[in-house]
Specification:
By secondary structure, the protein is an alpha+beta fold. The chain contains five helices and two strands.
Length: about 160
């Protein structure tokens, strides 16, 4: 005779049952059903309401504040990097122009400087100018280039003779 469910037994209140498969590793489909196995009660899980999680959690940082901080860091790193790159390009441009010049004196080295040397803002926003530090006559430069080309040719010839 089948046993009645626990809730319909007179004088007995309904108990919560374990509905998940965490009952000791036995396969419930193949195990014989007895009142002891079906009436196994568990402690009901109390789930926190929506306000319970908010009371203990720290308030989240606003999204706009995160964006503002990240933007500030990127600007603080990117602005000086852009200034340094532009000054490096200015130096290369001036030296390239000077190397093809036919003037009697040619600049062979120098650096870019801030137009307004008053401080950080002048360094970032004031612009740049090139200041030549090394000068050479045009004839001396041509002679130096010839000497370098001849030395390179002799080194290649010596390497070819040693390879044979």
């Amino acid at each position: 005779m089948p046993t009645p469910p626990p809730s319909s037994t007179p004088g007995r209140t309904a108990e919560p049952r374990l509905l998940s498969g965490a009952g000791g590793g036995r396969d419930r489909r193949s195990a014989p059903r007895t009142e002891a196995s079906t009436a196994r009660a568990t402690v009901p899980v109390q789930r926190p309401g929506p306000q319970a999680g908010r009371a203990t959690a720290k308030p989240a940082t606003p999204r706009w504040l995160k964006g503002f901080v990240i933007g500030g860091v990127l600007l603080a790193v990117g602005m000086p990097a852009a200034v340094l790159i532009s000054r490096s390009m200015l130096v290369q441009q001036v030296l390239t122009e000077q190397s093809s010049s036919k003037a009697s004196m040619v600049c062979t080295g120098g650096d870019a400087r801030a137009a307004d040397g008053s401080g950080v803002l002048g360094w970032l926003f004031g612009g740049s100018y090139f200041q030549c530090a090394d000068w050479e006559t045009h004839e001396a430069r041509l002679q130096r280039e010839r000497d370098q080309a001849q030395a390179s040719y002799l080194a290649r010839e010596k390497a070819r003779q040693q390879a044979r």
